[in-house]
Amino acid sequence: MRVLFINSNLKDDILAAPPIGLCYVASAAEVAGHEVRVLDLCFKRRIGPELEKAISGFSPQVIGVSLRNLDNANMLTPISYLPPALQIVRQIRALTAAPLVLGGSGASLDPQGVLEFLHGDYVIVSEGEKSFVALLEALNRGESPADIPGVGMWRQGKFHVTPPQLTSFPSGNPRLARWVDLTPYEKMGVSYTVQTKRGCRMRCIYCTYNQVLEGNRLRLRPPSEVVDEIEEAFYQFKPEAFEFVDSVFNDPIGHCQEILEEIIRRPWKARFTTMGVSPKHLDSRFLHLMERAGFTSFMISPESASETMLTNYQKGFGLEDLHRAAETINQFSFPVLWNFLIGGPGETNHTLQETLEFIEKYLVRKKGPPYNLANIFLGVRIYPGTKLWEISLDEGFIHDQCSPLRPLWYLSRELDLDMTMRQLYRAACRRPEIALGGIEKYLPVTKIFGVMGKVFPFPKPYWQHLLWVHQILVKLGVRSLLQAAGVPAQLREYLKLQSNRPISAPAGDKENL
Ligand code: B12
């Protein structure tokens, strides 16, 4: 069959993400004998003509649309990605009657809601390689795909989904650069993405990785296969850097170390980064290994530095692990982005203060330029299927009829919000190492790196330059100007609305959050 895949993710700032998931599915469909094309709409100026060109020149028999994000999961500056996705789907529908299949993490988080909102024909829940190919075969034979694992659809007016089977890593190399032009991503400082495994063993109460996204069963790729993929890309496309997009890069530690050792054994030298490092296995031996393999930065998400909150979030490590990890990291000179999630069950102004004191003690460098960036988010996004969803229902934060298509928030009632904002801003006004979640508003400004990068070879990833931008703002004493007035009242109002009545799905493409 002729299959056209369309990436609907238009986020084109320094957090742009090449559609690796869609490429995995496109490769699987091609291997199964289908004629495949990919249209990546990210960085495209005129979406309508791009769609028209891709559809009229190919006459696809099936269209696959990826929806990576529902929203930006940021309570201080919420943005929904559903309205632009609906506009894209409407334009596709006006151009072709081919069945439209939705997939991606956004679609997996609320398959029924997304199918309904985006008027798709089918939705693939969780990983797509096997389910999508089986769906194509069923459509080709004129059979119903209803019983295929991972396929969701309307049947006699009701939503029907067969649960996905996440038993093995279905395929190897997604051949990212075969499908997508990575040049604009590289300009924004984004790396060539690689996945070494699927599944997450952690049990964090708010997280969806071990649920519908990847399941909790680990499915490891052979280390040599992972490094072969990197090697092929290294020689063919010469990316400036690679990024591992595993949920937790260093779990299981043995598999991760084998990959690093395999990279070290190869004759080339590449640069690496990753977003998912756990403090648990972070000792100096491991960091040395990362350094020797070519890591130049990474992200780590302890979410809190309060023992109470680490326990409440079920992070799987304690404060001692975190202190040890921070001390070890400080012996190296990687720029490290630390993510903190303030406001979960049991958070108080005291536990917040513990986190801020940790940042002050470990992440603020006493001499030399700063290299730790603490990114603090306020409010925890409530996803269906998580323990936090249950807690939120019990505590009256949400109703069981609330639509997950709109961001729903947990924000501990034990937090005095006015004091919280004072604590956060006081810390951010003094320390360039602190970024508050509200910074999202300014992310489009980061596109300037795409232009300036041509002239000045700024080191990548670009988020590390927020440190000197903050430094200037702190020195000028103008960081407090970034403080949005009335935030606590706004947050309280949203929470009241959310707990008073079920939150319905957005009504259409004109409606934001
Ligand atoms: C790594 C990561 C990042 C990295 C990305 C680095 C990079 N250069 O790519 C960074 C830190 C930059 C990042 C940023 C953001 N992220 Co992020 N990220 C992830 C993470 C951990 C992995 C994503 C990934 O690449 N997976 C590997 C691929 C292979 O998996 P996949 O995309 O799911 O694809 C499979 C299936 O979904 C399906 N599939 C995919 N596409 C299609 C298409 C079709 C047609 C079909 C049939 C199937 C299909 O098949 C694929 C293969 O099996 C996920 C969580 C997770 N475990 O999935 C969150 C996640 C996707 N991110 C999320 C969010 C919110 C964001 C941000 C908006 C946060 C922010 N405010 O900055 C930004 C958005 C960035 C962007 N450009 O879109 C959310 C989205 C949920 C939501 N609320 O909408 C997730 C799910 C985490 C969460 N909170 O639960 N992220």
Structure description:
The protein has 513 residues and is α/β, with parallel strands linked by helices. 38% of the residues lie in helices and 14% in strands. Helix 1 (20-31) crosses helix 6, helix 2 runs parallel beside helix 3 and helix 15 runs parallel beside helix 17. The longest helix is centred in the middle third of the chain and has 15 residues, at 223-237. It is globular. Residues 5, 9, 11, 15-17, 20-22, 24-25, 64-66, 68-74, 101, 103-106, 108-109, 124, 127-129, 132, 190, 193, 195, 208-209, 213-214, 243, 245, 247, 275, 381, 440 line the site of cobalamin.
Uncertain regions spanning at least 5 consecutive residues: none
How is the largest sheet built, in terms of strand order? Answer: 2-1-3-4-5-6-7
User: What is the tally of beta strands?
Assistant: 18
CA-atom Rg in angstroms: 23 Å
Shape annotation: globular
Find the structural class using helix and strand composition.
Answer: alpha/beta
Estimate the helix proportion, in percent. Answer: 25-40%
Question: On the 0-100 scale, what is the average pLDDT?
Answer: 93
Largest sheet data: 7 strands, mixed
Straight-line N-to-C gap: 38 Å
Count of DSSP H/I helices:
20
Strand content: 5-15%
Bound molecules: cobalamin
Keywords:
20 helices, seven-stranded mixed sheet, 513 residues, alpha/beta, binds cobalamin, four-stranded parallel sheet
In brief:
The protein has 513 residues and is an alpha/beta fold. It has helices at residues 20-31, 47-56, 82-95, 105-109, 111-117, 129-141, 176-179, 183-187, 209-213, 223-237, 253-265, 284-293, 307-312, 319-329, 349-363, 387-394, 417-430, 448-452, 466-476, 487-500, and strands spanning 2-7, 35-40, 62-66, 100-103, 122-124, 151-155, 158-161, 192-194, 197-198, 219-220, 242-244, 272-274, 298-303, 336-342, 372-378, 380-381, 409-410, 434-436.
